[in-house]
Amino acid sequence: MTIPTEWILMVLLALATVISTLAAIIYRQLATEIATLRTIVVKLQEDVDRLSKGCGIAACLYKNRNL
User: Fold this and answer.
1) Cβ distance 55 to 63 under 8 Å?
2) Nearest in space to 67 (alpha carbons), one of 39, 44, 42, 51
C-alpha cells in the first residue's frame, strides 16, 4: 500500500496554510496590543513630564529635580 504523492503534497500545503494563517492572526493581535501599550506609555510619559515640573510652590521638592 502506497500513499499517492499528491496526497502528501496536499497535506503539506494544508499544514503550511494553517501555520501561516495562525501566524498572521498572532501577529495582528500582538501588533494591536503593542500599539495600545504605546499610547498608554505616551500618556504616562506626558503625566511624568507634567508632574516632574513640580507643584508650583517655591519650596516644592520636585521643582528643581533633574531627571
Assistant:
1) yes
2) 51
> What is the per-residue pLDDT across 15-62, written as a single tens digit (0 to 9) for each?
999 999 999 999 999 999 999 999 999 999 988 887 777 666 666 666
Distance, in Å, from the CA atom of 31 to the CA atom of 29, rounded to the nearest integer, reads 5
Q: What is the dihedral of CA 45, 46, 47, 51, to 10 degrees?
A: 100
> Residue 40 has which C-alpha cell?
498608554
Question: Which residues in 27-42 are b (16+ Cβ under 10 Å) and which e?
Answer: eeeeeeeeeeeeeeee
> Number of C-alpha atoms within 13 angstroms, CB side, residue 49?
6
Give Cα 6 to chain centroid, integer Å.
Answer: 40
Cell reading at 45: 510619559
